[in-house]
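Q: I'm a student working through a structural biology exercise. My instructor gave each of us a protein and asked us to get a predicted structure, then write a short paragraph describing it. Mine is ATPase F1/V1/A1 complex alpha/beta subunit N-terminal domain-containing protein. I'm not confident about reading structure output yet, so if you can add a plain explanation after the C-alpha cells, that would really help. Here is the sequence I was given:
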Amino acid sequence: MPLNTLHIQNLDLIRVWGKVTRIVGLVIEGHCPHASIGSLCRLTPIDGGEDIFAEIVGFKDSKALLMPLVICGDSARAV
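A: Happy to help. First, here is the predicted structure for ATPase F1/V1/A1 complex alpha/beta subunit N-terminal domain-containing protein. I'll explain a few features afterward.
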C-alpha cells in the first residue's frame, strides 16, 4: 500500500463535539459521542478560558463521567 494512502486512512476527518451537562464535586458529566472509558477529552470553557483535559472513567444513563486530568507538580494559580 502506498505511504500516502496510509496517511489518508489515519486522518481524523470528522470532529464530533459533545457538551458538559452537569458537574458534581470533581465529577464532570456530559455527552461525549463515540468515546469509551479511558478516552481523553479536551473541555473548552465557554468563557474562553484555558482548555481542561479530562479522562472518561465511566458512564451513567448514556452520559460520560469524566475526571479532570492533573499530575502532581502541575502549576496552580488563583485567578
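A: Here are two points you could use in your paragraph. The chain has one domain: 16-79. The radius of gyration is 16 Å. It's a good idea to check both against the output above yourself.
Q: Great, thank you!
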